[in-house]
Amino acid sequence: MSSELISPLKIGVAGLGTVGGAVVRLLEQKxxxxxxxxxxxxxxxxxxxxxxxKKRDLGTCAPRWADDPMALATDPEVDVFVELMxxxxxxxxxxxxxxxxxxxxxxxxxxxxLAHHGAELxxxxxxxxxxxxxxxxxxxxxxxxxxxxxxxAGNSFDRVYGILNGTCNYILTRMEExxxxxxxxxxxxxxxxxxxxxxxFDIEGHDSAQKLAILASLAFGIKVNSQAVxxxxxxxxxxxxxxxxxxxxxxxxxxxxxxxxQDGIEQRVHPTMVRLGSPLAEVMGVTNAxxxxxxxxxxxxxxxxxxxxxxxxxxxxxDIGNIARGxxxxxxxxxxxxxxxxxxxxxxxxxxxxxxRLLAVDRPGTFATIARHLADEQISLESIMxxxxxxxxxxxxxxxxxxxxxxxxxxxxxxxxxxxxxxxxEIKNRGVIAGRPQVIRIEKN
Length: 445
Ligand code: HSE
Fold this sequence. Notes:
Elements: E1 9-14, H1 18-29, H2 31-38, E2 42-48, E3 64-65, H3 69-73, E4 80-83, H4 92-101, E5 105-108, H5 111-128, E6 132-133, H6 144-151, E7 157-163, H7 166-178, H8 182-191, H9 200-203, H10 206-220, E8 230-231, H11 239-248, E9 250-261, E10 264-275, E11 287-294, E12 300-305, H12 309-325, E13 351-360, H13 366-376, E14 381-386, E15 406-412, E16 415-416, H14 417-429, E17 433-442
Parallel strand pairs: 1-2, 1-4, 2-3, 4-5, 5-6, 8-10, 10-17
Antiparallel strand pairs: 7-9, 7-11, 9-10, 11-12, 13-15, 13-16, 13-17, 14-15
Helix pairs in contact: 1-12, 4-5, 5-10, 7-8, 13-14
The structure holds L-homoserine.
């Protein structure tokens, strides 16, 4: 092939932070290989960023500066508008819409924008014929979007679930391996630059919820809607939960789970017990992973770096490569008009096993009361572990007192969320437990 004879695909990059800079450098470093793979050269012709004066490494490439994202999005020379500014609204949203209306294709890594306006933007792309690609929005370098949308286009999905937030997985890994508190591990994650200065978005599960909503849309043909995701973060997880999980043959992970149920598509993010030895249980540190249960194939798990400049740039460049090849796929894998509205998951009907840690008051009849209320709700126990109160410094009460509560850990067989909550409310009302019960859902392999 003589690439000189073929017109290059011209790229405009909006946002030159860690990811934007890495994309510009990668496109330059891999220019020859990309031209060979795609049958067409790819060239960054223009860029824009909040501060033009800031010193940044863009390799030897010297693109033109556009005044602002809108000017870049509508620049007649630009074929593909690459949005790497972030944010769930403007200027990213207006600029993407303008680029699509001008007949350009768009590549974005912006999960927040897609989680809020994904279906709306997909409709604009569809109307004007441009691509809207977002491989980098979930799991960065893990090619999960293309796997669901194209690689498994002939399959139906039962469940898509995974570790979608590296910060939380890092914190849980450190808590388990080094027996540290949640607060200490969070500080460490911030020091290493994994967690944001305001870490709430990561640790309370909202980052995972946005990513899950995008995966659920692709897998189940529903409109992307992060408000439909039930969300619970990891801040209540204590070192004793991680120790108990290991004794019971589990590991605790913050999972995002999209599951087909009789009541519709359940979308949930919460700390989860996963069986030791299962693919997701073995994923440690900042790494992300997604498991897929689809008909006709054995379970598939994709594992890889879910954040960082190089990993995210890898996904952005793969999207640009597809556009250079002339590959077009409907953004969410099917016509936007056929996407079904997604309702909030009815978690009270969630079915599964539960890990429950209680502080049982030390007096005759406590166990009988707990057992009676569980039985009243048809909850059957797989195991019971009682800890000696001296081994439990977090109990709060004087360990020498004969009445200090002692930790009891229960593992239930499959039941419903409603039944667990009703039983625990009754147990609490009877005064046989102290404090708030810890409840962690168990996910089947
Ligand atoms: N903050 C995210 C994480 C990365 O910790 O995985 C960006 O989505």
